[in-house]
Specification:
By secondary structure, this protein is α+β, with helices and mostly antiparallel strands. About 25% of the residues lie in helices and about 40% in strands.
């Protein structure tokens, strides 16, 4: 990743409602918008990656004791493979640690498993399906 990209992308806390358009567009475009809303959204920590004040990626973090669970990680296709997702992952790992987490986990789509493995996350359990999309749990100690 080039230095210029690091300077032009900023990570900020956002409200859950700000995550909805990207969650919907990227993760479940064929479902109603309510499908991507989570009951826990009001108590979660939501982050957005901004480029020139335009929201290009989102992720949501939920804490339960010493365990941090991230969900609804979505990056616009035209912004993928530019280091933005990496920056968001680094950010939520730091946030999780600062909030006292000793474990971090997510349910990930299998087609992006290698991304999570780059962060030292390991698969756990059996493959399961969300609709027709194969997924698996990834976790790591912090």
């Amino acid at each position: 990743m080039n230095i210029a990209l690091r300077e032009e992308v900023s990570i900020r806390s956002i409200g859950p409602e700000q995550t909805y358009p990207l969650r919907h567009q990227i993760l479940w475009p064929n479902k109603p918008v309510d499908y991507i809303k989570l009951d826990d959204d009001p108590i979660g920590y939501h982050y957005g990656a901004f480029r020139a004040d335009e929201l290009v990626a989102v992720i949501s973090l939920f804490m339960t004791g010493g365990t941090a669970h991230f969900r609804k990680f979505a990056t616009r296709p035209d912004q993928q493979r530019q280091g933005i997702g990496t920056r968001l992952m680094q950010h939520i790992e730091t946030e999780a640690r600062q909030r006292g987490a000793t474990q971090l986990w997510c349910d990930a789509r299998l087609n992006v498993a290698s991304f999570y493995q780059r962060f030292g996350m390991e698969s756990s359990g059996e493959v399961f399906f969300r609709e027709t999309i194969p997924c698996i749990k990834f976790q790591k100690s912090l």
